[in-house]
Specification:
This protein has about 130 residues and is an all-beta fold. The termini are far apart.
Length: about 130
């Protein structure tokens, strides 16, 4: 079964950094998006950023540009979210997603595109 496993969440002070990791297992695809989303209770899931596996494209939400960086390992089965200069408003449950068999006609920052999701990892930033 294709699945994603996330790790790296935790609690940090404002201005600190965290690095989230997301590994895809069960199958390796040549070209697909992997993305990070975040959600707080009572609000919609927000696209944070994504990377096109098999290419060079990355996309970021305006709220994290210049602070967050998405990268992948050479095996192309693990994606990282490096989060720097964290702010209290970054506090959320962070989810990894992939679209190897997803609905590709959606934007890669839209949750509706993705068919495989991780369990989520909590990030808490205190002021």
């Amino acid at each position: 079964q294709v699945q994603l496993v996330e790790s790296g969440g935790g609690s940090v002070q404002a201005g600190g950094s965290l690095r989230l990791s997301c590994g895809l297992s069960g199958y390796r695809f040549s070209h697909y998006y992997m993305a990070w989303f975040r959600q707080v209770p009572g609000k919609e899931r927000e696209g944070v950023g994504c990377i096109y596996i098999g290419g060079t494209t990355t996309l970021y939400a305006d709220s994290v540009k210049g602070r967050f960086i998405i990268s992948q390992d050479n095996a192309k089965n693990t994606v990282f979210l490096q989060m720097n200069s964290l702010k209290p408003e970054d506090t959320a449950m962070y989810y990894c997603a992939a679209d190897p068999a997803g609905k590709g006609w959606y934007s890669p920052l839209r949750a509706e595109r993705y068919n495989v999701w991780g369990q989520g990892t909590q990030v808490t930033v205190s002021s």
